[in-house]
Amino acid sequence: MASTGVFSDILYGDVFKYYADGEWKKSSSGQSVAIINPTTRKPQYKVQACTKEEVNKAMERAKFAQKSWARTPLWKRGELLHKAAAILKEHKSPIGECLVKEIAKPAKDAFTEVVRSGDLVSYCAEEGVRILGDGKLLVSDSFPGNDRSKYCLTSKIPLGVVLAIPPYNYPVNLAVSKIAPALIAGNSLVLKPPTQGAVSCLHMVHCFHLAGFPKGLISCITGKGSQIGDFLTTHPDVDCISFTGGDTGIAIAKKAGMIPLQMELGGKDACIILEDADLNLVAENIIKGGFSYSGQRCTAVKVIFAMESIADALVEKVNARVAKLTVGPPEKNCDITPVVSEASANFIEGLIMDAKDKGAKFCQEHKREGNLIWPLLLDHVTPDMRIAREEPFGPVVPVIRIKSIEEGIHHCNSSKYGLQGCVFTKDINKAMLISDAMETGTVQINSAPARGPDHFPFQGFKDSGIGSQGITNSINMMTKTKSTVINLPSPSYSMG
I want to staple 461 with a disulfide (CB 3.0 to 4.6 A). Which of 224, 279, 418, 481 is the partner? Predict the structure, then answer.
């Protein structure tokens, strides 16, 4: 069932329209893309399958609209973003309901994502006005051999057209984390939402539409990535790509040429646990970090490295908490809900079966119904098992027992990923030394990995990404430096 009320504007029959040039449009392709409800495994929504020609028109309008938007005062840009944030929060219910149906996100988490997204937009407006309103003055006599005859004024100016590609697991939050910095910096924005999450994104874009942004400044192009993905990412009018997702990002990076990239491509977030750690705290964070939203988070705990002496006690405490997790549909706010697709469930199950064949200890019975996989802690995992290296994106957490800190660091750093990690110990000196040695973009001390707060820097090393996110970093990344040099007469010049 599609949303009603104010969002009826974005429907054509039972197919959601796409957004370009300030209007909701039906694609000339006459085709649509079905969005499958992960819980029912039946079609829930349909979105337009846009054509390459429609992409071209959206890009052309974005390029044109950006020119006047770049001349719009910062306070006015910020004012419109604040308005969009307020509208977004007002419509948390219909957008949240879409998240429940499209990606099986528990209802309470779905509504929280929308509110968090509104907060991000508002904060971004404030931060953008502050940092973009601040230029810099350099004088020539600060460098040896030069007189005081040159003044250099530097400022940050927009890149142009930003292509934003968010993932299915946080389609609203990770879309606005790209949209808001792009807009406050004076860019235009073309959004390519994921298929699962596309309707949530369209509803979110409608909030920006209702806020009154100029026509052509924001577009939302729906369709299959296999049909228009490469066309979008290699389009000559794109001046920046902000992408969150999987290995597809590596292919995009190889084709992108000279344009700036901001990418977060997943991780194998390691949790190193020392002998002196508070095991109750650790167990709580493994549950929160490894199993929330069924493990479908880039910052989920993906592998535990536990010192041998405390491993038995830790596993016991985690198992006791796993037993209390509720499993079922997202509408009932269950802790464990269906993963996003049958393909994803099959992949996760493949990792589980590989671990079983190679001798891992199953702390719970492996159980699956459709896309729903029951939470599973795997003990006595060894590095040769796929689950030790690959990212499951599901409610399965492996435990590798280690005999030394160095062994844990070695296993962590041998991964091709380097997004986040965490260390549990009461010894802050050890924690800092381990953090320094871990090849990850962020290390959490005595807490599970987490993306937020959204203004914190967020970056990955190795195959986990390019560039740094977080509100301030994203604003800076979506601008370039412009210098204007004023040349004065030589100081020896007579002024009268």
Answer: 418
- Indicate whether 456 belongs to any domain: no
User: Three-state SS string across the chain, please?
Assistant: CCCCHHHHHHEECCEECEEECCEEECCCCCCEEEEECCCCCCEEEEEECCCHHHHHHHHHHHHHHHHHHHCCCHHHHHHHHHHHHHHHHHCHHHHHHHHHHHHCCCHHHHHHHHHHHHHHHHHHHHHHHHHHCCCEEEEHHHCCCCCCCEEEEEEEEECCEEEEECCCCCCCHHHHHHHHHHHHCCCEEEECCCCCCHHHHHHHHHHHHHHCCCCCCEEECCCCHHHHHHHHHCCCCCCEEEEECCCHHHHHHHHCCCCCEEEECCCCCEEEECCCCCHHHHHHHHHHHHHHHHHCCCCCCCEEEEEHHHHHHHHHHHHHHHCCCCECCHHHCCCECCCCCHHHHHHHHHHHHHHHHCCCEECCCCCEECCEECCEEEECCCCCCHHHHCCCCCCEEEEEEECCHHHHHHHHHCCCEECEEEEECCCHHHHHHHHHHCCCCEEEECCCCCCCCCCCCEECEECCEECEECHHHHHHHCEEEEEEEEECCCCCCCCC
Any domain includes 255: yes
The total of structural domains in the chain comes to 2
Decide if 29 is inside a domain. Answer: yes
When pLDDT is averaged across residues 248-273 and rounded to a whole number, the result is 95
State whether 278 and 261 are in the same domain: no
The whole-angstrom separation of Cα 173 and Cα 176 is 5
Q: Give the pLDDT mean for 137-144.
A: 94
Q: What is the pLDDT of residue 2?
A: 40
Tell me, yes or no, whether 287 and 364 share the same domain. Answer: yes
Kindly name the residue from 264, 308, 316, 369 that is annotated as catalytic: 264
Report the CATH number at residue 281.
Answer: 3.40.309.10
pLDDT at 224: 87
Domain of residue 245, CATH code: 3.40.605.10
Same domain, 121 and 42: yes
pTM > 0.70: yes or no:
yes
Residue 457 lies in a domain: no
Q: Answer yes or no: are the C-beta atoms of 120 and 89 closer than 8 Å.
A: no
d(CA 301, CA 304): 7
Angle at 472 between CA 438 and CA 195, to 5 degrees: 80
Is 79 catalytic? The answer is no
Q: Containing domain of residue 279, as a range?
A: 270-445
Q: Same domain for 53 and 202?
A: yes
Check whether residue 236 and residue 309 sit in a common domain. Answer: no
Q: Indicate if 357 and 470 belong to the same structural domain.
A: no
